[in-house]
């Protein structure tokens, strides 16, 4: 398809598509003349992912580039796909965080985490940010969030496991969209619980189950 | 304290503090001359919250202004503090989302949600974004995320409930920092599970408990 059709299908202005081509976020089309090129479904899929990560994932273009680079590395393995995307999602300028905070928090949870894992950086930053505004997260509150995150992570991994090898990287790359999904569900869950508690004091606690268990 | 001391304590350049004063994010100090003013702990606390929401919460300044406006409304009630902050966190330009998607998803969960709730907008957007890149979220996967979100939301509400009336709004306003906390825990939980599954096939499922249950 021509660039006009590509941009229309992706719901983006032609100028934006041209900008993504120039900046390398979108791979070049097949040149058909000095000024024209043909694009295919791979370009459309890539544009949709860029748009979703930008508008819903809330990522900056530089972070999107890192995620796309991670997705483009050859892999058909769930663990490697997830690990590559996760490390791409930790911005490089975060190294001032004190990892002792998050190492201690994680060791209290009994999780096997590499003490040099970059995933410890955003945890340290979140705990420091909460402490800076006077909110200490006691171990029992952290435990609830960790158990909640543990269950969600199993569903994430299951989603990557169940797709074909060539799709694993893209499904792993949707992590920022799942972040947005879970955040929205947490707001709705609070709304539900507040509505319930206005009527009845005890809220039933659902049993956690997950696919593939 | 003078502005120089204020900016030093908050870890921000004086120019940034002046910009926040001019833009109304930070309330004015007590004028002591035509060109000088005195600031107190309320200014420092506000600067720390702005900085945390910007750097860790990932909010734009316009969204931070909305959260601060919500926090500043007089309330000493948990439900109202949370509802105000939640509605401030839904950007106003999101109204193109098709709420039928999220109403159907939420009704499948059995939650009591107002069909006009603005919290349905980000859920619709997240589901649409995932669908646009070819990832449909089946009901059983959505159920896991919803149960996970339900437990985390109970811990959120408990944290707001247990603080003094005058602190409820600020604790509710830390929701974007808790988002970052939970996202980081989900990445670490995946890392833990991948490490476990490399060694042993079955991962023990923790029992979910939460404070105040």
Describe the structure concisely for a colleague.
Two copies of one chain form a homodimer. Chain A has 213 residues and is mainly alpha-helical. Helices cover 63% and strands 2% of the residues of chain A.
Description:
Two copies of one chain form a homodimer. With 213 residues, chain A is an all-alpha fold. Chain A folds into two domains: 1-27 and 37-55, no CATH class; 75-213, no CATH class. Helix content of chain A is 63%, strand content 2%. Chain A has helices at 3-10, 14-23, 41-55, 61-72, 78-88, 99-109, 120-132, 139-162, 168-173, 175-199; strands at 30-31, 37-38. In chain A, strands 1-2 form a two-stranded antiparallel sheet. In chain A, helix 4 (61-72) packs antiparallel against helix 5 and helix 6 packs across helix 7 (120-132). The longest helix of chain A has 25 residues, at 175-199. The radius of gyration of chain A is 21 Å and the shape is elongated. The termini of chain A are far apart. The relative contact order of chain A is 0.10. The mean pLDDT of chain A is 89. The interface between A and B is large, with 93 and 93 residues.
